[in-house]
Design goal:
Mean pLDDT: 81
Protein name: Lipoprotein
Oligomer: single chain
CATH superfamily: PknH-like extracellular domain
Distance between the termini: 37 Å
Signal peptide: 1-22
Structural class: alpha+beta
Strand content: 25-35%
Region (Disordered): 23-52
Helix content: 25-40%
Biased composition (Low complexity): 37-47
Keywords: Signal
Number of helices: 6
Shape: globular
């Protein structure tokens, strides 16, 4: 039987499957200073993007397995639960937060992998997801900046006929090159579930951690051990 999260993501996936876009880009080089007093050449847009996106194969290699996180079963997230297309949110000032619910970003990730984690010991109803999103470095920085701003300014929004309230920032987990964390309450098929997100940027890759309390109650925590294991493995792999 699908979880509440699975049911809503499948529904959203049907809507999102109506279209798709792909991001692409190149890498440029800066001109060297000739030694004259002419103004230094400006970096090209491609150079300003910094690190290139990782490939899907690299993301897959960097994704945690059960060997990396003791006490958890780790499985692939079904493709129909990670739609490829952004669905408009109301108000639009909450779009980045809404997109991240589906592991989406603007600009689009060039590759994504996702894993579902199940604790072998805890019975508190917490569902865990992890996603690795390949971006150009400049785009990854923009996504984190948008999430940081919107988690502070966006209190509630509607997305694919579902409501999300109580959006508020949480303590920065302090991982990778930069990170942001926030919580909200989702109203799915009349049931309210507290959810927590932590998003870490490591170079050009976004590492997304999602926790939902399927039993309701207080906002769940994303286990620090899981976050640290994934970020460490990513940084050692690439």
């Amino acid at each position: 039987m699908k979880s509440a999260l699975g049911r809503v993501l499948v529904g959203i996936g049907v809507t999102a499957a109506l279209g798709a876009t792909a991001a692409c880009g190149g890498q440029g080089t800066d001109e060297k200073d000739s030694g004259s007093k002419k103004p230094a050449a400006k970096a090209t847009p491609a150079a300003q993007e910094g690190l290139k996106p990782l490939t899907e194969a690299q993301l897959t290699k960097a994704a945690i397995t059960k060997a990396d996180v003791k006490g958890y079963r780790v499985g692939n997230t079904p493709d129909d639960e990670i739609p490829e297309v952004s669905v408009p949110a109301k108000p639009a000032t909450c779009q980045a937060v809404a997109d991240m619910f589906l592991l989406g970003t603007e600009p689009d990730a060039t590759a994504r992998v996702s894993r579902s984690l199940t604790s072998l010991t805890q019975t508190d109803g917490t569902l865990l997801r992890m996603g690795l999103l390949a971006q150009k470095e400049a785009d990854a920085k923009k996504v984190v900046a948008d999430l940081r701003t919107q988690s502070q300014e966006c209190n509630s929004y509607e997305h694919t006929d579902y409501k999300y309230t109580g959006v508020k920032p949480l303590k920065d987990p302090g991982l990778g090159d930069e990170s942001v964390s926030y919580t909200m309450t989702s109203d799915i098929e009349g049931e309210k579930f507290p959810v927590t997100y932590s998003v870490v940027r490591s170079g050009s890759t976004l590492v997304v951690f999602y926790a939902m309390n399927a039993l309701g109650g207080k906002a769940p925590e994303v286990p620090a051990a899981v976050m640290e294991a994934q970020v460490t493995k990513l940084e050692k792999t690439v």
